[in-house]
């Protein structure tokens, strides 16, 4: 889909929503666990129900997690930012507005490298999730039910510049962002459950410049669907442009197997009547707070992969490890606990498929115990071997006559005498030197 | 003498000496309500059964010693609440039929603190619907009448609380002010009305009007009562991010400890309007002379013309109203959105317009810039004075029906308190006398968190004269 092969250059920007896994919700003390709740509307209070008189108080941990994501995506962090009210009317939004950040996001000007070129991050900001709608049939009647367990769950939005040029790049970029956020431990990024949600803004350019329209694709819940929608839109928009027309500025939804489907035509931008939320004072991130957040920043997948290669792990194995969240957290722990064991652990992960649920400390202990058990001490093994030789002079003679097969007898008996604890390599070497 | 006539401190003396019980106080208040309500309409809801039960419990706890007046500074005192304070399980309407059947599942922080201090919640007072107005004439439950002349208005939006205190239906009440809603009805009804610094008292659980302005505060018979109530309801609230961590002093104790000798009181000439009702400005000047006699220094000062604050306040408040009322068009609390009154609809439309793309910069953003100028103006003046003294309102109470023809009625009635509200300052209304048989109020405006100074000077004035003799 690059311009040498095709008439048009694909231009795509991504919007990524990530639900944070903080203990409580964004603006109240309610439990943040919409997926774990066994009933609807059990994690609610006047604040997340938007009741008369209720007020939002920002969750400090969520703000720190949002900044952490910004830092991991190489963003600048605003020393002063604010929350704004974004007004729109929908049943899943009880206050009639969503608390978001409009013109002063927490994080801005970031960058993520991909093998197809860099993708600039416009902004990373903090907002709240909406309630969840369920369309159901109750007593034969079609009804829409609302579950407020998700209402006001902390939501981070990551917006990119239109730097994505191909479905392949999109996939690599999105995976990378997901792996980074998982490495930070601030979100499960589970697209099936909706804790990570994707939107694409797609247009085609014939001259490399940004065209005067864009098509927004919503409700994309996998990287593959994201790539598919780019391919589908490339074809659809090319056909329109080939006819000398301009694609309509609109919102489309992705349907697996059908491509993108028109949802709503846009007459310019919707008017959300943003204004600073008077309930929340401006957010000041001073140097002390910022450096304490920075100290939480773990090594990210790229850095860990580099460390692994340095430790002697082959590059393909390093890649496999950092792309698997379980492997990644395991190896990260080993790196901090016992760096000298990293190569062995990497091998165990990739080739021996050890149980990734093993606690890293226990894994190291077991390894060490096994190593400790082996008798490598020659002063212990030597008398055993010498005794064996004295008792079996005939076999010694046979060996000397060229029957090297008898070596096995000695090794086996050393093992027997030590209940299998003798280090076979050491015993072998010792027997050979004594025989000769 | 009936117990409902008492102030909080007087009632406490009787409770301490065991000469009266909380039930006595409560019953006398309920009786006064019963007698006066047909004429005044100060209440939306009266909690007769609940209040009597709470009073009996207070008496029991005081008797057994579980409660002391130190642990429960409002033990057994019947208090009325403006109907925009959420009361758990008790109807809260904000005087709008939209909330006609709303029983909140939670207490507002102010109510929680009052209950913890041992107060008896007697009922919920009438107000302009959603606090939109300065007359209570936008209430869906009828307007509240002025106890001094039932052909006239109590003012608003906390008109019910002002009238209830003024007529001794209660011992004290709580109101809330966005710009004038405590001080203006207090002025018209001849009671003390204290507007704390924005952020001094939690807004959690108060049906929001102008969120960057709303300030709950006491409405009482004496300055000392306001000081006592404020000490109870003020303070940092983890549920309101805009509350201040500044420590809360014991305002009642500070009344006696603060000397007004040498205190510099600024008299802003722009606040003595040429077209003010004759007699009002003179009464205020006389009152200021009284403070001069007590040792204060009067200094003539100049502030921005208060007329500028009308437009600015209107833009900012309408914008916030349009946003704050959005929730009632979705979730229904008994009444549907078709029950929103004309005033609420006007405010929603104006505020929506001011926030719309293409108009935001010209209105809301400019409004915020003007607000900063007003704040700066006060900061400048407070470099050379400790307090500002002016009339609270340019007229005494107006006749019933006066607000009907004027969509800007409230803004004009509140012209002298809007600038200080926009600046988030603290202020108080204290009655200083009568013009034409109707009360006149003087306001004192202090720096941010200078409630102690404001209360001390108001107290000194109150102690130096019997205001009811000033005609």
Structural commentary:
The complex is a heterodimer of chains A (436) and B (471). Chain A has three domains: 9-283, no CATH class; 299-373; 378-435, Orthogonal Bundle (Arc Repressor Mutant, subunit A), CATH 1.10.10.410. Chain A is 36% helix and 21% strand. Chain A is built from 13 helices and 16 strands. Chain A has helices at 60-72, 167-184, 223-242, 287-294, 301-310, 315-323, 325-337, 342-350, 360-373, 378-391, 393-400, 407-417, 424-435, and strands at 9-19, 76-77, 80-81, 84-87, 97-100, 107-112, 119-128, 132-138, 141-147, 154-160, 196-205, 215-220, 250-255, 259-265, 275-276, 283-284. In chain A, strands 2-6-7-10-1-11-12-13-14 form a nine-stranded mixed β-sheet. In chain A, helix 3 (223-242) links the parallel strand 12 and strand 13. Chain A is elongated and about 100 Å long. Chain B has 471 residues and is of the alpha/beta class. Chain B has a single domain, classed as Alpha-Beta Complex (Amidase signature (AS) enzymes). Chain B has helices spanning 8-16, 22-40, 48-64, 109-116, 159-166, 183-189, 223-233, 251-257, 280-293, 307-324, 342-355, 361-381, 409-413, 418-422, 451-464, and strands at 43-46, 78-82, 120-125, 145-146, 149-153, 172-177, 192-195, 215-220, 264-268, 297-301, 387-391, 426-435, 438-446. The two termini of chain B are 25 Å apart. Chains A and B meet through loops of A and helix 10 of B.
